[in-house]
Design brief:
Blueprint: H1 2-13, H2 16-33, E1 60-68, H3 71-74, H4 77-86, E2 91-95, H5 104-112, E3 116-119, H6 132-149, E4 153-154, E5 173-174, E6 196-199, E7 206-209, H7 217-223, H8 230-241, E8 245-249, E9 255-256, E10 267-268, H9 269-282, E11 287-289, H10 292-303, H11 314-322, E12 339-342, H12 350-356, H13 366-376, E13 379-386, E14 392-403, E15 407-412, H14 426-442, E16 447-452, H15 456-459, E17 467-479, H16 486-490, H17 495-507, E18 510-514, H18 518-534, H19 542-553, E19 558-565, E20 568-578, E21 581-589, H20 598-612, E22 617-624, H21 628-635, E23 640-650, H22 656-659, H23 665-673, H24 679-689
Parallel strand pairs: 1-2, 1-8, 1-11, 2-3, 4-5, 5-7, 9-10, 15-16, 21-22
Antiparallel strand pairs: 6-7, 12-13, 13-14, 14-15, 16-23, 17-22, 17-23, 18-19, 19-20, 20-21
Helix pairs in contact: 11-14, 13-19, 17-20, 18-19
């Protein structure tokens, strides 16, 4: 320990340029000594026992990581991310938690663009494993950052490590080892170009270790002063030949992004760009460009394959879903016992179960099932697990959506913002998902979709090459419980963007009418059509809103408000109340009258009503994360923002449109063309296409 302290004290006294000169000398001395195991250690190519290959038959895995050592590197992160994106790659950025401030906006930017964020220690100065006491103290702080940043990956500074101590971190993977690198201070390598599982105290405890397998840019271009990418190319070709994982570290700190002469501790951006181009051109369609978390999830699935993908013979289930023409004995993937499919409309246990469950929402209610079935005719499959007393203990509702254009698929649930599985354990979810998959195979479905806010961690275990995860949407919730009065509630709102607009609306000639009849719903629909038309999107068919009104209003669960300027309806909002929440589902307005802020008025009246009725939350609903202006609008109301995670189990022939409706060519065409069409045609398009979009 004292030797370590003396080393770091001495390091502070030596100028940076001199430090590098000493390290360059040591590297040159070691090159002749370790030439037989660097850059390639042939013994590291041995695959793990039972290795069956990477997803979709890819030749090798490609993992790009960036360690940000200083504030200097932090300033270059967006540039580096844009370069990765330009070449079609995604990567992870590991930040030192306390050496510099990592703006939440940067982390959000990276997440939104499909990159990953990890923790690179608290400080980039000392060996945090120099004593167990020191590490455990730092581990507590690191775990707080892991939770605060909502990340699951770690890499220690300077590649110091103790794989046993790392069990104290709340992580899915660590990336602090390498296959071979005799130039590191702790130079013993893992001896493999594959990930591996580091076991904890029990079989199910542990984490995935991801060794870097390509030399670091710092070694090649700062210490060795290489002038080309030959070493990277040679090592990559060898990894690809042996089907391993090509994981490398590039530091933004050391890249010179300008045309100026690189500093003593920089190298030209061209080297990195040349290497990305080499990968892209030589190995096109042969590599799986995965984030570290993707590798960890995939490897954990392999490690746990005896215990499940689904609860009965998971390999047979997955094979049968991915290839419906494959003949597998049906006994291998029959649903587990005690799971039945019920009709929630006629089972008096269902709505009470939804009401009692912490994740029960409007979309679970039997009336939502009635609405979807009445409007679109989809077939419901509400799978439940019953306890020994015949009571429902867990459930996963789905609909079979069958279309000649988009195929057959199972969705939980169509036209809902999100719908968490109503489970209490991982085993419940395993059994229910198995039942959904089995039922979908019977109907030759090619696609299964789940959307969740609270159960993402349970669904994460299924991620694989054909079970994809995305977070394309956000949900915004306003807490009504804490403020004691409506005036106190108003203090949560943005003064300029919300409060001032509410005041303006209240001073205008607007008045608000509470809908009572079908004619009121017809007025709402016409305003909804105007809004959808202005956005270049077709409206839901009129029957959808009429059915919603007919079904929910008889239970006093619907609140439809319309703002009038004189006798002219200018805006309308459709809310549904369930449990302790008012759900803001749909709204429409006439663009000619927006100067009076009728939408702000209707939202305020809805929120005021919800607060007066003693409800706890006002749900602003789902928004595409790309719709930044609408997200900002909802944030201005003092809401809490949550991610909606979408999980998609697909076959290769599943229509691309289903994987991301917001960015699909069909949506793009509709967006550009529908606002030019006559209103009658615009409505007709909505009536024709929504049945195929569920």
């Amino acid at each position: 320990m004292y030797k370590n302290e003396a080393y770091y004290l001495l390091k502070k006294l030596i100028p940076r340029q001199l430090q590098l000169s000493i390290r360059k000398f040591i590297v040159q001395w070691k090159l002749s000594k370790y030439g037989d195991i660097w850059p390639i250690d042939e013994s590291a190519a041995k695959p793990p026992e039972g290795w069956s290959g990477w997803p979709e038959g890819k030749k090798f895995a490609l993992v790009i990581t960036h360690d940000v050592e200083s504030a200097k590197g932090l300033k270059k992160c967006r540039q580096l991310a844009e370069i990765d994106k330009r070449f079609g790659f995604r990567s992870s950025f590991n930040f030192v938690a306390e050496d510099y401030e990592v703006p939440p906006e940067l982390r959000q930017y990276l997440a939104d663009k499909g990159f990953e964020v990890g923790i690179h220690g608290l400080h980039h100065d000392k060996n945090l494993f120099r004593s167990k006491k020191i590490f455990q103290k730092q581990a507590q702080q690191i775990n707080l950052y892991l939770k605060k940043w909502n990340v699951r990956g770690f890499r220690t500074p300077s590649m110091y490590r103790d794989l046993d101590m790392i069990h104290d971190l709340d992580i899915d993977y660590d990336a602090s080892t390498f296959d071979t690198d005799p130039f590191e201070p702790q130079h013993d390598g893992a001896g493999t170009i594959f990930p591996f599982w580091v076991h904890g105290n029990s079989k199910n405890e542990g984490y995935i270790e991801l060794p870097y397998t390509l030399p670091q840019d710092f070694l090649l271009y700062i210490l060795m002063k290489e002038k080309n990418i030959n070493i990277w190319q040679t090592k990559l070709d060898w990894i690809a030949k042996n089907g391993g994982m090509a994981l490398f570290i590039v530091h933004p700190d050391y890249i010179n992004f300008d045309d100026t002469k690189p500093g003593y501790d920089e190298y030209p951006l061209k080297y990195y760009e040349d290497f990305l181009l080499y990968i892209q051109s030589k190995y096109k369609n042969q590599y799986w460009n995965a984030l570290p978390r993707d590798i960890a999830h995939y490897w954990k699935t392999l490690e746990n394959r005896e215990g499940a993908f689904y609860s009965i013979n998971p390999e047979a289930t997955l094979k049968a879903f991915k290839n419906p023409h494959l003949h597998i004995n049906s006994q291998e993937y029959n649903p587990v016992c005690n799971i039945t499919a019920i009709d929630p409309e006629h089972d008096n246990r269902w709505d009470q179960f939804v009401l009692d469950h912490k994740n029960g929402s409007l979309y679970h209610h039997s009336l939502w099932k009635k609405l979807i079935q009445a409007t679109y005719g989809y077939t419901p499959y509400y799978f439940v697990i019953e306890d020994e007393n015949g009571q429902i203990s867990a459930a996963l509702p789905t609909f079979k959506v069958k279309s000649p254009f988009t195929g057959t698929r199972f969705v939980s649930l169509p036209f809902s913002d999100y719908i968490d599985p109503l489970v209490n354990s991982q085993s419940d979810l395993d059994r229910l998902i198995n039942a959904v998959v089995v039922e979908s195979m019977k109907h030759k479905a090619t696609y299964i979709e789940f959307r969740t806010i609270n159960c993402s961690d349970l669904l994460d275990k299924y991620i694989s090459s054909n079970f994809l995860k995305s977070d394309l949407n956000r949900n915004h919730i306003l807490d009504l419980e804490t403020p004691n009065s409506v005036e106190e509630l108003k203090r949560k709102f943005h003064k300029n963007h919300v409060v001032r607009n509410i005041k303006k609306a209240l001073k205008s000639d607007l008045h608000v009418h509470t809908s009572q009849t079908e004619e009121d719903i017809r007025i709402f629909y016409e305003l909804e059509v105007k809004t959808r038309r202005s956005h270049g999107l077709p409206p839901q068919p009129y029957d959808f809103f009429k059915n919603m009104w007919d079904i929910f209003s008889v239970r006093d669960m619907a609140l439809v408000l319309t703002a009038y300027e004189g006798s002219i309806p200018v805006a309308s909002i459709f809310n549904i109340i369930f449990k302790n929440t008012m759900y803001y589902l749909y709204s429409g307005s006439d663009p000619r009258y927006l100067r009076s802020r009728p939408n702000h008025l209707l939202l305020w009246k809805s929120i005021e009503t919800a607060h007066r009725q003693g409800l706890k939350y006002f749900d602003f609903g789902r928004t595409s994360k790309d719709h930044e202006s609408l997200i900002d609008f909802k944030r201005n109301w003092g809401t809490d923002e949550m991610r909606i995670y979408q999980f998609q189990l697909t076959q290769e022939k599943a229509p691309a449109f289903l994987l991301n409706r917001a960015t699909s060519p069909i949506t793009e065409i509709l967006s550009k063309q529908t606002h030019r069409l006559p209103t009658t045609i615009h409505k007709l398009i909505g009536k024709l296409i929504y049945k195929h979009m569920g």
